[in-house]
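Field reference: "sequence" (input) and "structure" (output). Example, ABC-2 type transport system ATP-binding protein:
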Amino acid sequence: MSLVVKSISKNQQNESVLDNVSIQFEQGKIYGLLGRNGAGKSTLLNIINNRSFATSGEILLDGTSISESEASLNHLYLMSEDNLFPSFFKIKELFKITERFYGTFDWALAKEMLHKFGLKADQRFKKLSTGYRTITKLIIALSVPCEYIFLDEPVLGLDATHRDLFYSYLIEVYQQRLCTFVISTHLIEEIATLLEEVIVLHEGKLLQAASVETILQNARTVSGPKEIVEPYITPLDVLGQKSLGGSLTAYVYGPLPEEKIEGLSILTSNLQEYFIQLTSGKED
């Protein structure tokens, strides 16, 4: 079941929020949707899940526009900061509502997660802290029978222990069901080991879509004396530079010269470092 974002644009108040964004999501992968504040990530997720409407373009699930097929939406689930649930309902009532909408619900998983996170099914949603409201929404997201699950800032308000527990459950569900997860978050370093594919939005445009493996094979940090680093990086794709005294650190992307240069340090950049340099460089 393929999900295609086809030439999506979104204008609000005469400003472009998304500009001709096209992405194809493959089933059975974990994607990271990355971008700085205002890049258009949440807007894109809302459009994909039919909570907002594009100015132009379309979202296709197996070739059918989701805006023309209500049944298609049963294959998609978006967990976001928005509280769409009736706040006066108990947690178990929210589970039942979700089950009626999607047809089935993984009650065994939901009950296990409630226990592990220290929640009770008869607690009222409105009386929960921000962190526990997030946990409730995450339990629902992992328990719905959807092929595509979108998580927009999924660990808002969670402490480190609860975040780690959530990531463990996400991997467990992914391995059991081979559904597709699309995670939008600023905590790049924390989720880097989970991701297989990365999509980078910048100022409403698609800046890059690539596998994590490809990025890590091509992103390098080159450092050393300025007089050695500068001629070395001249023919390369330089994302950014930092100088300190007589030393220079450059962030480059792509193949490197085979020749070894004495005095140079060349290291693989991590995903967060690469993202920072990639998007910062676009400000110039």
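Residues 102 and 122 are 22 Å apart (CA to CA).
Residues 160-177 form the longest helix (18 residues).
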